[in-house]
Amino acid sequence: MTATSDHDSYIGEAHEAFRPLLEGLRATLARTLPDADEVVAYSMPGFRIDGTIVAGYAAFTRQCGLYVQPAAIAEHAEEIAAAGLKTTKTGITFTARNPISDGLVEKLARTSRKAAGV
Known about the structure:
Layout: H1 7-13, H2 19-32, E1 37-41, E2 44-49, E3 52-59, E4 64-68, H3 70-75, H4 77-82, E5 86-87, E6 91-94, H5 102-116
Antiparallel strand pairs: 1-2, 2-3, 3-4, 4-6, 5-6
Helix pairs in contact: 2-5
């Protein structure tokens, strides 16, 4: 994907199969973090509060990712594993066949915000 300046453009340029996932992530994060500003940082859409990126998302060739503070992933590691999702230090990856649930996104976003202290 090329560099974009807003969430709509980013989602519009993503592979068609991932657009509904990205739209869902965006909506869930916006609802969970209503006072956050939508930004694009590091070529990825994100939600910023008081200068700190609390959550972001991305689309890749074969999967999508949700990116949050490491403490959020650690706190919800069992639930993430039970959902069959893969993690890195700051991200959870998922596919259209095994998407991340809205409930888990909400929990991760809230915990990420708390961990970021904003």
